[in-house]
User: Fold these one by one.
Assistant:
Number 1:
Amino acid sequence: MNNAPQYIYKITTQEQWDEAVSLGIFKGAPIDLQDGYIHFSTAEQVRETAAKHFHGQKNLKLVTVASHPLGDALKWEISRGGALFPHLYAHLETSDALSVIDLEEDGTGGHIFPDEL
C-alpha cells in the first residue's frame, strides 16, 4: 500500500506482551496464530477493533509500531467492512514497538485511547 499510515496498532493482553518481551518476539495472540499472521489496526480502525474483539477485557496493552520498517511482511488486506487492514506475516520483534501503553477500561466495557492516535 503506497500511502500506508506511518503507525499501526496491536491490542494484546498484558500476559501475551510479557511473554513476548521475555522471548524478544511477539508471535501473536491465539487468533493471530490461527490465522497465520498478526492482526494490526490503523488509528482509524483500532477503536472499533477494541469494541468488537476486546469489550470488557482488562489488562490490555496498546502497542504502536512503525509500518514502513516491516517491509514486505506487512500486507494490506480486505477485512471488516471491506477496509484494508495491516496483517504482519512474520513475528514482531518487541524492539520494534515504539510504545506500549496500558489500555484502560472506561467503566462500561469500552477502552480509553490516547487522543494523539
Number 2:
Amino acid sequence: MAKTSSVEKNNKRRKLVDQYAAKRKVLKDIIMDQSKPIEERFRAQLKLAALPRNSAKIRIRNRCEITGRPRAYYRKLKMSRIALRELGSLGVIPGLVKSSW
C-alpha cells in the first residue's frame, strides 16, 4: 500500500488540473498562435508561468486505484500488476486466467 500522503497529493493535483484546464488552454492557444504579436504571446506566457505548477496535466502520476502503487500501472484496468495478479487469482476479473503449472 502506498503512502496516503502521496495518493492525496496526486488527488489534489487532479483537482487543480480540472480547475485550471480551461484557463491553461486559452493561454496555450495564444502562445502557439504565430499570427499574434510577440508581446501578447509573451504576456500570455508569463500568465501561464504564474499558474500553479500542479495545475499542469503532466504532473499527474498514474496510480493503482486499489493499492496506490505508482509503478507497473495498466491504464486500461487502472491498477498495478500486483493488484491485477491478486484479483486474477481470486477470479474477480472476468476473462482473466492466471496460469500455473
